[in-house]
Amino acid sequence: MRAEGGAPGPIEPAARALGTSVSVGDLYFNTPARRKFLRTEATEFGHCEEVFRRAALARPDLVWTLRHNGRVSVVLKPQTFAERAAALLGKDFAAGAMAVDAQAGGLRLHGLAGGPQSARSRADTQYFYVNGRFVRDRLLAHAAREAYAELLHGERQPSYVLFLELDPRAVDVNVHPAKTEVRFRDARSVHQFVLHALRRALSPRAAAAPVSYAAFPPAQARPGPVGQHRRLAPGEGDVLLPAEAAARKAHVPVSVAREILCKIDRNEYTRRQMAIGLKVTRKAFGEGRRYPVAQKFSV
Question: Does this model's pTM top 0.70?
Answer without folding.
Answer: no
